[in-house]
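Hey,
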Amino acid sequence: MAALAVFLVLWLAYEPMLKAISRGRGVINTDMTVIRAAWMRTMAGRENKFMDGQLLGHTLNSASFFASSNLILIAGAAGVLFGGEGAFKSASSLEVLKTSSRLLFEVQIALVLLTLARGLLDFIWAIRQMNYCLAVIGATPQSEDAAFQQAYGDIAARLLNPALSAFNRGVRGYYFGLAAAAWLFGPLAFALVTLAAVLLLVMRQRRSPAARAIGDLRRLIETGRD
């Protein structure tokens, strides 16, 4: 129960905690919101927007791929969950698995299924929002007014950023799905893998070469605007 409580807190509160720690700066997710806003402002002033549609279309294809992969994993987990006594006996016969009863086994698999389902819903919502963004890019009027271009780009960014944030949450679901699967190997493994997954996510958000480069680019964009 203690390991499950740790997992649920970190899984459900990861994003708010990361925002509170970063205070709006110093992590990839928050720095990228500034970069995407700059992209949309540039898009609004660009005559040919074919490249912008292509870039977003590539991300849309990636989200569709991950959503399809999630469906396959969900089907596999559901097959085990509803496999009845046969699935439980097959799993409990493995020495490495730590499951004391069929009820516990089903709860363990259900948690994996739940993390994957949440990720699938995030991917679906990301795909829908990115389709809205494509319409926004296609509907961008030609205007020489710099103030209009900036205002249009800022509004477009308010749609693009939540779309890609939902995509990020879907990808993050794989980390927590692996952590949930570790419960099958015992509560200690469950807690350790959960903490390791969160530590890996935070390190990549704050200490990776990509995080440093994106932070430098954000500062350069903000300096240029000033």
